[in-house]
Write a structure and sequence with these properties.
Tetracycline Repressor, domain 2; mainly alpha; 2 domains
């Protein structure tokens, strides 16, 4: 140690923050949890496993997020920050719906366990805060559908219940991804997954738009 190093005052840390090599930001922990949720159901994404994935002390997770539920809520917020309907309000209603369906399928594919996380961990097993947050996320989407249908005024899309429209778009997208172990054996060997998702996107748009045509 040099004389200058010896004379340098120690770096002060915030109270309760773990010291050492694990001195990293919360983003690293969030990224690790998000990565695990791409391959594991939420119940298996524990504090210990997240800490191992991030290469940090579990105490650092508690320092940044308090508990596992708050961490998982932060992950959900991070994943859904780029909402499927972001920017769609600038398009014509039918074009907005088509773009929204494409983004919803892409989001579910990139985070296949996200909706199970919201239902099982943040709603059924969560707190009043997490239940309110998940309710707000879904209410925002229902309102988007309501505005879209009202803006169309029955010109290209008939009036339907926006809640049911939300359920069918999210439900179909989520099941197609989460039920992969059931769907894969029904496919020809060597099926290209990207092509399959593109075909599903086209199919879902076609079924919805034909069903939504004014009568």
């Amino acid at each position: 140690m040099t004389t200058a190093q010896a004379a340098r005052p120690p770096v002060k840390r915030s109270k309760g923050r773990p010291a050492g090599d694990n001195d990293v930001g919360g983003d690293r922990i969030l990224a690790a949890a998000e990565s695990l949720l791409k391959t594991l159901p939420p119940a298996r994404v524990t504090i210990a496993r997240i800490a191992q994935e991030a290469g940090v002390d579990p105490a650092l997770i508690r320092y940044y997020f308090g508990d596992r539920t708050r961490l998982l809520m932060a992950v959900a917020g991070r994943v859904t920050a780029n909402k499927p309907h972001a920017g769609a309000r600038t398009l014509e209603p039918q074009a907005a719906l088509i773009e929204h369906i494409r983004k919803t399928i892409a989001l579910v594919r990139s985070a296949p366990f996200m909706h199970r996380l919201m239902v099982e961990e943040l709603n059924a097993g969560g707190t009043d805060e997490t239940r309110a947050r998940t309710r707000d996320m879904n209410a925002d989407l229902v309102e988007f559908y309501r505005e879209l249908l009202e803006a169309d005024g029955g010109e290209t899309l008939r009036a339907v219940d926006p809640l049911f429209l939300h359920v069918i778009i999210l439900g179909a997208s989520d099941f197609f991804v989460s039920a992969d172990p059931v769907i894969t054996p029904l496919l020809p060997p060597g099926t290209d997954r990207d092509e399959l998702m593109a075909r599903f996107n086209t199919f879902l748009v076609d079924v919805l738009l034909n069903g939504l045509k004014p009568r």
